């Protein structure tokens, strides 16, 4: 059983039949990281969310890969610190592919 800390530092237990997922949304204005638990009935229960201002993206295109990478790394570190978790895998969409 895994444990994730919510914003108020109250722990939430995740049973063996539930799966923790992390999703990253990279936009021109904001980068957002959200986590949720896939419950046995396949519903997703949102557990946490963080966002930061996007850098390195202009009108949906990467303009500066290094700035974008720094912002993504910052957001992941901020999320892990805020919620007391270690993120090993993140799902993200890549527009235009």
Topology (elements, then pairings):
Layout: E1 2-5, E2 11-14, E3 19-26, E4 30-38, E5 44-53, E6 57-58, E7 61-62, H1 65-83, E8 91-92
Parallel strand pairs: 3-8
Antiparallel strand pairs: 1-2, 3-4, 4-5, 6-7
Describe the protein's architecture and organization:
- The model is unreliable at 1-13 (pLDDT under 50).
- The protein has one helix at 65-83; strands spanning 2-5, 11-14, 19-26, 30-38, 44-53, 57-58, 61-62, 91-92.
- The protein is built from 1 helix and 8 strands, in the order βββββββαβ.
- By secondary structure, it is an alpha+beta fold.
- Strands 5-4-3-8 form a 4-stranded mixed sheet, covered by helices on one side. A two-stranded antiparallel sheet has the order 1-2. Strands 6-7 form a two-stranded antiparallel ribbon.
- The termini are far apart.
- Strand 3 and strand 4 form a beta hairpin.
């Amino acid at each position: 059983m895994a444990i994730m800390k919510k914003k108020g530092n109250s722990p939430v237990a995740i049973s063996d039949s539930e799966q923790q997922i992390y999703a990253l949304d990279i936009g021109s204005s904001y980068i957002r990281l959200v986590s949720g638990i896939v419950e046995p009935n396949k519903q997703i229960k949102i557990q946490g969310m963080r966002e930061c201002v996007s850098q390195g993206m202009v009108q949906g295109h990467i303009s500066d890969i290094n700035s974008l990478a720094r912002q993504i790394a910052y957001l992941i570190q901020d999320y892990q610190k805020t919620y007391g978790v270690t993120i090993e895998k993140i799902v993200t969409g890549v527009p235009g592919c």
